[in-house]
Specification:
The complex is a heterodimer of chains A (about 500) and B (about 190).
Chain A lengths: L6 E2 L4 H12 L1 H13 L5 H26 L1 E5 L2 E6 L5 E6 L3 E8 L1 H6 L1 E8 L7 E7 H11 L17 E5 L2 H10 L3 H29 L7 H30 L3 E5 L2 E6 L4 E7 L3 E8 L1 H6 L1 E8 L9 E4 L2 E4 L3 E7 L3 H8 L11 E2 L4 H24 L2 H23 L1 E4 L3 E6 L4 E7 L5 E6 L1 H5 L2 E7 L7 E8 H17 L9
Antiparallel strand pairs in A: 1-2, 2-3, 3-4, 5-6, 5-11, 6-7, 8-9, 9-10, 10-11, 12-13, 12-20, 13-16, 14-15, 17-18, 18-19, 19-20, 21-22, 22-23
Helix pairs in contact in A: 1-3, 2-3, 6-8, 7-8, 11-12
Chain B lengths: L15 H30 L9 H16 L1 H7 L1 E4 L3 E6 L4 E7 L3 E7 L2 H6 L1 E8 L7 E7 H12 L31
Antiparallel strand pairs in B: 1-2, 2-3, 4-5, 5-6
The chains are: A alpha+beta (about 500), B alpha+beta (about 190).
């Protein structure tokens, strides 16, 4: 091997690095500013400025050193990265091991015209290497070289090449996605509303009672107030959800480039990924009740590198940049077969024969819920007395309903070499895993399942995000078939972790 | 080939029972100690706390220990593995049963570990890892050192050759990589 000739990162990286370090040392900086302001005049000046110099040096020196010591090179089919001030680190990543490449830009990057480039290999959901930051031109060239292409010397902004756009999310679709997405904010908003309005209601209630000079009883108007409060907060949460969807996914575009897909999105923070479709380990299709009524869904894919893991929220100067495993944040259901064709070409994932789960699934649900229901009912018996019996049977009834609906909507199938598992009735998910991507098969059986001849099969993929494709409550015969067949196909097939990049 | 009939599969070394017994006893002690803390607080704070100090924790400790020890024989009976021609199967569990099937050509690496008790008993634990899984895909405790190493050797070395990719085209002759803008081409 020749000694790699390293390239430097962009000079303005120092600014980004500065703001990153500044964030970590916020407390110290506040202290310095404080002492500078309060210590003006007299001998305090010198003290304050001295500290400012020290802190400034502490912030600036690592940023400059990092810039000076960081280097990258693409040579002999490898990516070399050297970094480190005291502890030197040199990393070699074979290009054919790269699972996907992400380009991210926070608002600060965008002002400075810089890009961060993340490289994911099959090690974990985290990016293996991060080259931060490059000019847009350098990032383009580097990405092209990592992908084994000849770089075209055009910039991001005025990309002349004709793009094969396969899916472009319209603003209306984004609106629907935000409006139908179940966001935690909605719940928190509702709870906050409860608290604020609730507190006021209680105060008013006490006030009234004092005025009336009698023992208070619950006036009806307070309930109205509560309800209105909850509705207002739900509405605010809902608006917030729509807004955040817009900010995150604005201008989402999926572009086909041979065997690869490229997605770009983001209003403030800009993200661009390259996804080699042959490396997709699992694909997940999700739709909740509201989305089903609106005829939209969400599709996620995951490579062995994670394709942007959920735990991969980089703390950036411009805030957190989410790189999510979504293939499309929103998709018209009618367009799903077309998108699925991009990921698994030539496979019909929609018109497959649906094998039902075990007949006795409902009984399994009832049996599994007996003990928890007993515990819950028993636990409340002290307060509820005989109502505990009603609670017990109520819980059993819910379990029965749940089991019934689960049995009705769950199915599994084999789409010409792609295993399909559909689960859930309120929020329905369909998971797809190609037979050759199955790493291991696990069959599980709980006592309740054993009583009714059922079992759960997990097909383990190399994707750290959607690790298991679960086939819940299939009959033992089916479980045996699934385990044997999945196992046979995966051991006959090639370990395709490194194919197709 | 996976099968659910595990009677003919291999058992672990008998001494693994001793390891499990010791581990379960240590676990019981910790469990008892954890219960002891709230009991201590209750006995201090609640006036006229009727139960002598240590009785609840002691009972829980003994129950946990007793039941745990009782099932160790069953656990041993139910833990089985089989190294097939192209796969490894591991079955475990008394009530919640589990069968794990791992293709030999999917094995990424194999770890052999032994804690102090296991070392004293002369046994090791073999963990098998596949791609993308951070945790071991399967763990086989309680093998002698030689048996563990033999298993590792078979899993890592004696595997069938990989099938080449379907469209193996000869690699194009290496060309000089294009230069970065504004820099001399890489030699």
């Amino acid at each position: 091997m020749n000694n790699p000739i390293y390239h430097r990162i962009h000079t303005l990286t120092i600014l980004i690095e500065l703001s990153r370090v500044a964030r970590q040392m916020l407390l110290a900086i506040i202290f310095v500013v404080y002492s500078l302001v309060t210590g003006s005049g007299g001998s305090g000046d010198f003290f304050g400025e001295g500290i400012a110099a020290i802190v400034g040096g502490l912030v600036l020196i690592p940023a400059v050193l990092r810039y000076l010591t960081f280097g990258y090179a693409v040579q002999d089919g490898n990516l070399y990265i050297k970094e480190g001030i005291v502890t030197k680190k040199q990393r070699t990543i074979p290009l054919d091991r790269i699972q996907n490449i992400n380009l991210t830009r926070s608002w600060l990057h965008r002002i400075l015209g810089l890009v961060d480039l993340d490289i994911e290999t099959a090690v974990s959901a985290k990016a293996e290497a991060r080259i931060s930051a490059l000019s847009e031109e350098d990032a383009r060239v580097l990405r092209a070289r990592l992908l084994g292409e000849r770089p075209t010397h055009t910039s991001f902004v005025n990309e002349e090449r004709a793009k094969d756009v396969v899916y472009k999310v319209t603003n209306k679709e984004l609106f629907l996605a935000g409006a139908s997405e179940n966001k935690l904010g909605t719940i928190i908003g509702a709870l906050l509303g409860l608290q604020i309005i609730g507190q006021r209601a209680i105060e008013k209630f006490v006030e009234d009672a004092v005025k009336a000079g009698r023992t208070p009883d619950m006036p009806q108007s307070n309930w109205l107030l509560w309800t209105v409060g909850i509705i207002i907060m739900l509405f605010i949460g809902w608006v917030f959800s729509i807004g955040s969807t817009f900010v995150k996914y604005y201008g989402f575009e999926l572009v086909r480039d041979g065997d690869r897909l490229r997605r770009t999105y983001g209003m403030i923070n800009h993200v661009e990924n390259v996804l080699p479709t042959k490396r997709v380990q699992t694909m997940v299709f999700v739709e909740n009740l509201l989305q089903r009524m609106l005829k939209i869904c969400k599709v996620m894919v995951s490579t062995a590198g994670g394709f942007g893991g959920s735990d991969k929220q980089h703390t950036e100067p411009g805030g957190k940049v989410d790189v999510l495993p979504v293939l499309t944040p929103v998709l018209q259901i009618g367009a799903f077969p077309e998108i699925a064709q991009l990921i698994f070409p030539g496979k019909d994932l929609v018109g497959i024969a649906r094998n039902p789960v075990g007949e006795k699934t409902v009984f399994r649900y009832i049996r599994s819920s007996i003990l928890p229901s007993l515990i819950v009912a028993g636990g409340t018996a002290y307060f509820t007395r005989y109502w505990a019996i009603a609670i017990f049977f109520g819980l059993l009834g819910l379990a029965t309903l749940n089991g019934f609906l689960h049995k009705k909507f769950a199915y599994w199938g084999d789409a010409d070499g792609i295993w399909v598992s559909a689960l859930g009735w309120l929020k329905r998910t369909k998971k797809f895993i190609p037979a050759e991507k199955v790493q291991a098969v696990i069959v599980r059986q709980s006592p309740a399942q054993r009583a009714f001849g059922l079992a759960t099969v997990d097909m383990v993929s190399a994707s750290p995000l959607f690790q298991n494709v679960e086939f819940d409550d299939v009959t033992t015969t089916d479980a045996k078939y699934l385990a044997e067949e999945a196992h046979r196909r995966s051991s006959d097939g090639r370990d395709s972790l490194v194919d197709g990049f | 080939m996976p099968a659910f009939d595990t009677d003919s599969w291999e058992l672990l070394e008998l001494s693994v029972k001793k390891l499990w017994r010791a581990q379960q006893a240590i676990g019981s002690i910790f469990f008892g100690l954890i219960v002891l803390l709230p009991e201590f607080i209750l006995s201090r704070e609640v006036p006229k706390w009727p139960i002598p100090f240590g009785l609840i924790a002691g009972t829980i400790f003994l129950l946990y220990l007793g039941i745990g020890q009782l099932f160790i024989g069953k656990k041993f009976e139910n833990f089985r593995f089989l190294l097939g021609e192209d796969d490894l199967s591991v079955a475990s569990g008394i009530f919640w049963k589990q069968w794990r099937f791992i293709s030999r050509n999917r094995v990424q690496h194999v770890d052999i570990t032994a804690g102090p008790i296991a070392r004293a008993l002369g046994i090791v634990q073999v963990s098998i890892f596949v791609g993308g899984m951070a945790a071991a895909a399967a763990t086989i405790p309680g093998l002698t050192q030689s048996r563990g190493e033999e298993l590792r050797h078979k899993l890592v070395k004696d595997r069938k050759p990989q099938i080449p990719p379907p469209d193996e085209t000869p690699a194009p002759p290496p060309t000089a990589p294009p230069a970065f803008p504004g820099e001399p081409p890489v030699e």
